[in-house]
Structure to design on (182 residues):
């Protein structure tokens, strides 16, 4: 008998959101490279959108960005806007272009991570929370984007190992979340 668990994708995405949220609050503030920190909300949005969940991508981006804004000390609403637009862009490009190529997923994610981190850092500069353009771009945005890419690779690796090739993340079925694009 073949049993199709339609709620597995939802459970995996909720567990991923909770784990990345806890890590964003506890570990990320203590791990920095040149002042840049990982944005696990961006990593979550990328994992969901590139994994195939295209219908709810802007909502995922909105709530992940709102969590990031409320958990941090930056302006509320900025990361919400950036991740909503990122979710929309990644869902539009993710399923049709990178459904079978993990390298293409990373190639698609790297410039988006750089743009999101740079825009956020430049707005912090405009709000007076940073001192110079060089500081925000080379000391925050660039190292932050590198950490985002490393975190996405780790998330993709963990999800591909824990799913075991069934439906959901890393699965063969297109319903729900899959990690085919990562």
């Amino acid at each position: 008998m073949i049993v199709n668990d339609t709620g597995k994708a939802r459970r995996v995405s909720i567990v991923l959101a909770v784990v990345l949220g806890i890590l964003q609050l506890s570990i990320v503030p203590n791990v920095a490279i040149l002042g840049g920190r990982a944005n696990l909300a961006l990593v979550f949005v990328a994992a969901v959108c590139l994994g195939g969940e295209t219908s709810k991508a802007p909502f995922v981006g909105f709530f992940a960005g709102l969590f990031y804004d409320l958990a941090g000390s930056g302006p509320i609403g900025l990361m919400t806007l950036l991740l909503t637009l990122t979710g929309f862009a990644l869902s539009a490009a993710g399923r049709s272009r990178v459904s079978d190529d993990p390298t293409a997923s990373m190639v698609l994610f790297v410039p988006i991570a750089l743009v999101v981190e740079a825009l956020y850092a430049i707005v912090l500069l405009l709000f007076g929370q940073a001192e110079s353009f060089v500081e925000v771009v080379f000391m925050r945005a660039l190292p932050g984007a590198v950490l985002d890419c490393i975190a996405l690779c780790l998330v993709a690796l963990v999800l591909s190992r824990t799913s075991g090739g069934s439906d959901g993340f890393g699965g063969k079925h297109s319903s729900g979340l899959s990690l085919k694009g990562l």
Notes: The two ends are 30 Å apart (CA to CA). Helices lie at 8-26, 40-50, 57-71, 78-97, 102-126, 133-163. DSSP finds six helices and no strands in the chain. The chain has a mean pLDDT of 78.
